[in-house]
Design brief:
Number of strands: 4
Distance between the termini: 33 Å
Structural class: alpha+beta
Number of helices: 10
Order of helices and strands: EHEHEEHHHHHHHH
Length: 211
Amino acid sequence: MKLYVYEHCPFCIRARMIFGLKKVPFELGVIMEGDAETPTRMVGKKVVPILQKEEGVYMPESMDIVHYVDQLDGAPVITGECNPLIDAWCKENTRAVFNLAIPRFTRADFKELATPAAREAYTQREINAFGNLDTLMANSQIYIDTLVEALGKIEAYLQGRHPVSITDFYLFPILNSLTIVNGFPYTEALRGYLDHISSACNVPLFTDKAL
């Protein structure tokens, strides 16, 4: 199987997690930003992630990919529903996380941004979605302060060293985006959670690319 992604994309992180958690071998492919033709040829629209199954059939949608890979061995573990507290937290705070992460993603070293044209395409897409990226960078401390307070509301969950569950497939990709922020004030619980899920799912953090 081959999984096509953008390295920075939280939905792609989600799809990558299940392969590491279940120790399923796969090939990782990166689609360049600005390349609409490749994903459209595969699944009819410009999206990632996309899974190419063994038989050559393509599957989009991150959680569909998660459940498909999870069920391959007949013993799925990603079942049930996301913890309601965490689900609500993600919906309330994802924009603040992205206000920090997006301008840094556009400047960081990702394979899908390896050409000037690809980086420009991505940057323009995010300007259209989020507005002036320089302003977001300048306001970083506002978003950091907001998130430090918000993270306190899920401190108890972050402190738990529970088996990876469906809840983590929603929470970890969002919190992982914070690791692109150089100097973010990690609590012991947040750092422990990120390291725990990263190790369990064999998904790298962005700390080596932080800006």
